[in-house]
Amino acid sequence: AQKITQTQPGMFVQEKEAVTLDCTYDTSDPSYGLFWYKQPSSGEMIFLIYQGSYDQQNATEGRYSLNFQKARKSANLVISASQLGDSAMYFCAMNTGNQFYFGTGTSLTVIP
Amino acid sequence: GAGVSQSPSNKVTEKGKDVELRCDPISGHTALYWYRQSLGQGLEFLIYFQGNSAPDKSGLPSDRFSAERTGGSVSTLTIQRTQQEDSAVYLCASSLGRLAGGSSTDTQYFGPGTRLTVL
C-alpha cells in the first residue's frame, strides 16, 4: 500500500497567486515526520519544510506553509505569492520507524 | 562547502563496465542514504547507513549493486557489469540523526546527484 499519495501530477498557478499541493499519508505509528522537497530542473532535491506528528502548530518557512490535518492524514504544502522560480517538481515524504517514503511528485508550473 | 557533495556529476560508461559513485555527507551527519531516480520518476531507495550499524540494503535492485561507507563518512556506491537499465540519476542524502520518526533530525539533505548513462 502506498504510504504517501500525491494525486496531482501537474499544477499551474499564476505568478503572485497562492497554490496548494496535496499530500496524504498512511501510517499507524503515532510518531512520524512529514517533509516537502523541491526539485527544480537542475535535479537537486531541496528541503523545504518539516512537520512532526506531535507538533501542534502548522509549520511555516517563509512563503511555504504545511497545512497539517492529522485526522485526515493530510500534509498539504501551501506556497504563497508564487514566483517563476517556484516552477519545479515537489515531493512529499514521510519517515516513520526506520523507513522513509516519498510520493510520486507534483509538477508545478508558474505562469507569468 | 557545507552541503552534501557527489562525484562525478556525470558518468558515461559502456555496458558491462563497473562504475563507482562517491558521496561526501555533511560533516557530523550520522546517517547516509542512496537513491536512484530514473527520468521523470520518483525516488527509489537503495541503501541506508547509520553510524557503525549494519546498513539497510533492502532497496538494492540486484547483487551487482553494493555500497560501503568508510569511517562513518564518505560512501561509495559500486555498480558492477552495468546494464542500460542502470541509467539514472543517483542521489545521495545525509541526515543528522538516525531514522526514528517524528524528529527533525531525520531531515535528509541531498547532494546534486550523479547522472549515469550506460551505452
Please, could you describe this protein's structure?
- The complex is a heterodimer of chains A (112) and B (119).
- Chain A has no helices and twelve strands.
- Chain A is mostly beta strands.
- In chain A, strands 2, 5, 6, 10, 11 and 12 form a six-stranded mixed β-sheet that branches. Chain A has a four-stranded antiparallel β-sheet with strand order 3-9-8-7, with no helix packed on it. In chain A, strands 1-4 form a two-stranded antiparallel ribbon.
- Chain A starts with a strand and ends with a strand.
- The model of chain A has no long low-confidence stretch (mean pLDDT 94).
- Chain B has 119 residues and is an all-beta fold.
- The chains are: A mainly beta (112), B mainly beta (119).
- Chain A binds chain B through residues 29, 31-33, 35, 37, 42-47, 50, 52-54, 91, 95-100, 102-105, and chain B through 33, 41-43, 45, 48, 56, 89, 91, 93, 98-104, 106-113, 115.
Helix content of chain A: under 10%
Mean pLDDT of chain A: 94
**Gap from first CA to last CA of chain B:** 33 Å
Helical residues, percent of chain B: under 10%
Range of strand content of chain A: over 45%
Secondary structure tally, helices of chain A: 0
Taken as a percent bin, the fraction of beta residues of chain B is 35-45%
Overall geometry of chain B comes to globular
The pair of chains with the biggest contact is:
A-B, 27 and 26 residues
Q: What's the total number of strands of chain B?
A: 10
Low-confidence stretches of chain A: none
Number of helices of chain B: 0
Strand runs of chain A, count: 12
Output the keywords:
heterodimer; A: 112 residues; mainly beta; 6-stranded mixed beta sheet; 4-stranded antiparallel beta sheet; B: mainly beta; 10 strands; 0% helix
Give a short summary of the structure:
The complex is a heterodimer of chains A (112) and B (119). Chain A has strands spanning 4-5, 10-14, 19-21, 24-25, 32-39, 46-52, 60-61, 64-69, 74-79, 88-96, 99-102, 106-111. Chain A is an all-beta fold and 112 residues long.
